[in-house]
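Narrative summary of target 7.
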Amino acid sequence: MNRIVTMVLKNLPIIPGAWIKLCRYAKNPDNYPEEVRYRHIQYILRRAVKSGNIDLQVTGQENIPQEGGFMFYANHQGMFDVLAFAVTCDRPLGAVLKKELYNIPFIHQIALCTKSFPMDREDVRQSLTVIQKVTQEVKNNRIYLIFPEGTRSRQGNQTLPFHSGSFRCAVKSKCPIVPVALIDSFKVLDQKGSKPVRVQMHYLPPIAYEQYKDLKTPDLAALVRDRIDQTIQTHIQ
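Modeled conformation, tokenized:
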């Protein structure tokens, strides 16, 4: 059975009310505190993880800064990746999403509730506008997630090259960077079936602005990718 179908069937009693509330928040997000919107999203997603036979193993949550704005940079394996962050990071966060992912129902509502932005990498002007918006949000002490590969790798636990332009937000906002390594997350929603699956998520130590300020963005991208790749190779089975 498809995993999404399994999640839906096991949560039928709460779905109507949870969906209506999510849509209400998404329609007028400014009318509700960010904390309220985010806790509702976590409630939905944590039930989905539990009912979807997903063993989400997390390490390094102590590396998540408890104050100030910063950015997560993670490898991108599948549609579950963004949801894993919302489940495991208790500080509200937004994300920069590929425009195709942004328009998927449910993810779209979550994106609106979290002030996430769609990016069209083929539209340079639109991409620059998103970078400017994220930079300002991070300066205002919010958290954002970017997948610097730009798309799902579709190569299992092998990463694609990281786009250096993705790091302009961090450089411009002078914020800490928290690399995150995802392992086997593609097995959740990007493969058929609903058998139990284990996903690993490793929050790595932050890289302070003082540590990378003298690096060019291609070198910074390579540094972050290398730390993620090393973590994947250490923990892969």
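The chain has a mean pLDDT of 94.
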